[in-house]
Amino acid sequence: MARYDEIHRRSLDDPDGFWREAAEGIDWHTPFETVFDGSRWFAGGELNTCHNALDRHAPDRAALIYVSPVSGTERVYSYGELLDETARMAGLLRQLGVGRGDTVVIYMPMIPEAVIAMLACARIGAVHSVVFGGFAAPELAARIDHARPKVVLSASCGIEPGRIVEYKPLLDAALAQAAHQPSRCVIVQRPQAVAEMGERDLDWAEQVAKAPWTECEWVSATDPLYILYTSGTTGLPKGIVRDNGGHAVALHWSMKNIYDMSPGEVFWAASDVGWVVGHSYIVYGPLLAGCTSVLYEGKPVGTPDAGMFWRVAADNHVKALFTAPTAIRAIKKEDPSGRLMRDHGLKYLFLAGERLDPDTYHWARELLGVPVIDHWWQTETGWPVAANCMGIEPLATKPGSPTVPVPGYDVRVLDENGVECPPGVDGNIVVRLPLPPGCSPTLYRDHARYEQAYLSRFPGHYLTGDGGHLDDDGYLFVMGRTDDVINVAGHRLSTGAMEEVIATHPDVAECAVIGVADALKGQLPAGFVVLKSGVTRSAEEISADLVRLVRERIGPVAAFKQVSVVARLPKTRSGKILRSTMRAIADGRDYRPPSTIEDPAALDEIAEVIRPA
Ligand code: COA
Ligand code: AMP
């Protein structure tokens, strides 16, 4: 561990020197004045993220490989081609009145135009906010109202196995609900479902074809590059802000040091541009490092089969594949003997987004015959907090652990009183401030919420919201969230948001939603509802209403399908529902009813529903 130890120690002892050196991997228009001024990284510096991701690389090198089994399309974009389309899209945005600091919402499936849209915003200093396609219209409307975009970029449809998801009617419904209105919507027309266009809508292909090629605008290192909304504990998502300078430096550094990727090598993050993994490792990371990135529009299974990941990897000479454990579990279910896994050509499999269970780890490790690297991070950090850094020094793995803190992160485990836990004892996982470059420095238009959510619980530390421990060797074990966030098939969702939707049903008196373990998706939401007295409709009818309501208001991605009607919910004497005890029961952990419990029998009753004998 000597090399890792030395680099990690240096990153904490001399962050200025460490990150100054890392910043040499980025082209600066104006050099920064300070590396870290106590609150911001690289203040005074000017750069452009799109320049660093596109313009500076060899134009004939492959930048993006689009593989879309669901539409039967494959296309390779060279850096020159991607730059050309991006620069013209940037020109169109300018013509539509979008300038530096303006926001643009992107609601798109996994098509190259989504990547072009993000980079085009970066090129002119506009701030993009991508909304995942699996969210329903009200969620999109909430993000539009918060981000207040000048323009929305979207597509006529996405393609899910067995069904076409028409995005344009969803966008129209969202705009009908939103208070804020963009001046224009630019729509990519896909042949699978051509959208009806309204007065403010423009056709992407027609407009970009005649738009002027546009140069990069230099922005401050501390200017925002994007906003990405993520689930918090309430229905109102948190607008994570990423700045240009810190983000470019950290992601560029991570490609070599964590993922062992060099320019020209092929990296594939099988995620979605709507999530942070897509932002960091489909779009920005690989392109900042001059790698080739695979953009995959399909699923691990069923498009057409469980061998697709391995064929795409082999055909495109992918060195490192990054996906969520749930994708591997889906493949394992369909192809348990690994019959379709031969000849993948991969050097590494990286997994993140949820806990990697040891069974899945061992299965993938044995059948793929390559290192399987669990690593842990969050939308807030934008890049890994704990990992086995392949570009520094491969360390021995311990199943169930994402290995060790990444250089730049001073990870600690604190008990409820803020005292450091001894090795092996679970507590709150925190990062001692300052956070390294790339981590979100604030929440969009709500710095008070940032301070309250992340910095107030343990002063001087960033609260990750995850619980776990460090062992004697300094390996981190992440056991799960300590709040109302759940991870469903690697998708981060808020149980609080689901409760808010359920509570609007006229027959529901009160409710609780918790995550319960699921063999495929890791967790699934389960709702427990108490009905108002005098309700005559059946529990089945009301449950069906609630499932439909969550799907319509939050989206299919919530996968909310389990509702139990119960006589009462376990509470404290002050009326607080015992969600964390319910979570402990669902996870099969030991639990002790709090001394403030109102009626212990209520807890026994709910335990029987959650985990029937
Ligand atoms: N647009 C519209 N709908 C979408 C969507 C999108 N971009 N993405 C998902 N959905 C819908 C699905 O069609 C599905 O709808 P259904 O209830 O009608 O079947 C629902 O949302 C749930 O989707 P998903 O979570 O993908 O579950 P699934 O059962 O279709 O597939 C897996 C299960 C494991 C194959 C799938 O979750 C997967 O590939 N996960 C990979 C992990 C990943 O990408 N994580 C991102 C963070 S790294
Ligand atoms: P997201 O912001 O969508 O990336 O989700 C972040 C959350 O996913 C974390 O706070 C963890 O709860 C969970 N998570 C991500 N990666 C891992 C991992 N490798 N092991 C355990 N949990 C993880």
UniProtKB/TrEMBL annotation:
It is an enzyme of class 6 (ligase). The keyword Iron-sulfur does not apply. Pfam families: ACAS_N (PF16177), AMP-binding (PF00501), AMP-binding_C (PF13193). Its EC number is 6.2.1.17. GO terms for molecular function: propionate-CoA ligase activity. Residues 4-53 form the Acetyl-coenzyme A synthetase N-terminal domain. Residues 498-576 form the AMP-binding enzyme C-terminal domain. Residues 57-433 form the AMP-dependent synthetase/ligase domain. InterPro entries: ACAS_N, AMP-bd_C, AMP-bd_C_sf, AMP-binding_CS, AMP-dep_synth/lig_dom, ANL_N_sf. It comes from the Bacteria. Keywords: Ligase. Belongs to the ATP-dependent AMP-binding enzyme family. This is Propionyl-CoA synthetase. The lineage of its organism: Bacteria, Bacillati, Actinomycetota, Actinomycetes, Streptosporangiales.
